[in-house]
Amino acid sequence: MAGYQRILLAVDFTDDCEKLVERAAELARRYDAELALIHMVEPVIVDPTYDVLPTLPAGYEQELIESSEARLNALAQSQGVSQGNCHVGVGATKAGIIAKAEEIGADLIVVGSHGRHGLSLLLGSTANAVLHSAPCDLLAVRIG
Ligand code: AMP
Description:
The protein is an alpha/beta fold. Helices cover about 40% and strands about 20% of the residues. Strand 1, helix 1 and strand 2 form a beta-alpha-beta unit. Helix 3 packs across helix 5. The site of adenosine monophosphate has 14 residues, from strand 2 and strand 4.
């Protein structure tokens, strides 16, 4: 089987994400592949007619994007991934991961996967959602 050349790792900044980055970087070294990271910022939709919700400060989303970029760059640096291979998108997580995988021609997507049971299994996971539309192989790394 041919090795992988372009690996895309989806990062959500939870406690397990460093382990995930290490794992993806190890795979990239093994296959001599390029590693790219993506984090998706899901837009905060606030209905202005629903006044019980706290008002979000103006520029909140931009701040979130900038802090995500800084966190992603720091994670990437720890594994020798260049800033040019760090992507922060705004939108639905699954769609953003798939679109980026297509854009960069990824041949492997890596996501974290929690062992799910019961209701949370029914509600689905990111790994499950991505698997059904992935344009390439998907590796779900068990993280808990
Ligand atoms: P879940 O089981 O749905 O909580 O998803 C866990 C995995 O999905 C994480 O380890 C990441 O690989 C990926 N993921 C979840 N949220 C995001 C996000 N906002 N941006 C990028 N990847 C994400």
